[in-house]
Amino acid sequence: MFFASDNWAGAHPNIVAGLSAAAGGFATAYGDSALDEAVYQRFSEIFEREVAVFFVATGTAANSLSLTTFNKPGGISFAHRESHVIEDECGAPEYFSGGSRLHAVDGPLGKIDPPNLDRAIGRFASEVVHWGRPMAVSITQSTEVGTVYGLDDIDAISAIAKQHSVPLHMDGARFANALAALDTTPAEMTWKRGVDVLSFGGTKNGCWCAEAIVLFDLDRAKELAFLRKRAAQLLSKSRFIAAQFEAYFKDGLWLDTARHANAMAARLAAAIEDSATAKLAWLPQANEVFAVIEKTEADRLQAAGAAFYDWHRPHGFDGHIGEDELLYRFVTSFATTTEEVDRFGQLIAG
Ligand SMILES: Cc1ncc(COP(=O)(O)O)c(C=O)c1O
Ligand SMILES: C[C@@H](O)[C@H](N)C(=O)O
């Protein structure tokens, strides 16, 4: 019963097969192989316009280099207070940009509140040299607490970014999960809503190690190529990232795995809601479930083999957490089975 993170899941058999099929022979290195080029083209087809694609090894690299693409001295990027770029990247975005800063913006359950964003950017709009100046806005889709920005939500955030003449970045470490949840298209959820650069994650959704920066602002592509190399993120055997994405997109595998993970989260949430010892903190929208559970009960579940973590109370969660209770996060993946979820359901039912 592995619900600690979708980072714990392995690689989907189709991805493994794709990687193995590409393993033999020789191919041009550093992103210039025929397979790399074919996958770049596949990304353009999927996003219904020409895009520039840059494979990197981690989501942190994708986020950091995406923001650095729009770097400026004194630059400030605006992200949700509990965003990965602020809370879980150890200063990488600041480091790779040579000192740009991240400004935390509040909003309910992981989503930036547009008026808060407008006020936050507005404080720096006069570009007083002592204070710095707006550089970018970053949203996470799906968010760090398993919620999803609706298309109207993205429109509202994007309008403010454009009003302040700053680009919009999307941390799409769980892009496929959000896409499946909204049942929309990659184009509708990104550039058609004003997203300028996307961290496109494949690792958590069945790939072995496959992340890509998808740049809609093609004028910046040359700059990003140098930024990636300087960050030691240009993989010599890039074709092995390409091979994973080729298999990932083939026959819609990426959306099937995301839909499955989301369905498993919904099943897990129902089991938690049916129990007498735990309660959902909020409804899951993608593949992350949050519940308030008595610590002794959580200890029992973990001792019985369920892997999951406690989580800090996110901004905007006004539910009650008792003295002997904690908030816990459960993450499902392509590898989560109904048997696993049902076994957990029986366990939590007592
Ligand atoms: C929301 C989010 N963004 C980005 C990442 C990428 O992080 P990593 O550098 O660990 O691949 C993660 C990791 O799980 C994440 O949860
Ligand atoms: C760092 C940790 O939060 C990781 N991004 C995860 O979602 O599991």
UniProtKB/TrEMBL annotation:
Q: Which GO terms describe its biological process?
A: L-threonine catabolic process
Which GO MF terms are attached to this record?
A: L-allo-threonine aldolase activity
Which Pfam families has this protein been placed in? Beta_elim_lyase (PF01212)
Q: Which UniProt keywords apply?
A: Lyase, Pyridoxal phosphate
Query: Is Membrane one of the keywords?
Result: no
Positions of the Aromatic amino acid beta-eliminating lyase/threonine aldolase domain: 3-293
Q: Work out whether the entry's keyword set contains Lyase.
A: yes
Q: Which PANTHER family match?
A: L-THREONINE ALDOLASE-RELATED, LOW SPECIFICITY L-THREONINE ALDOLASE
**Protein known as:** L-threonine aldolase
Question: What's the source species for this entry?
Answer: Mesorhizobium australicum (strain HAMBI 3006 / LMG 24608 / WSM2073)
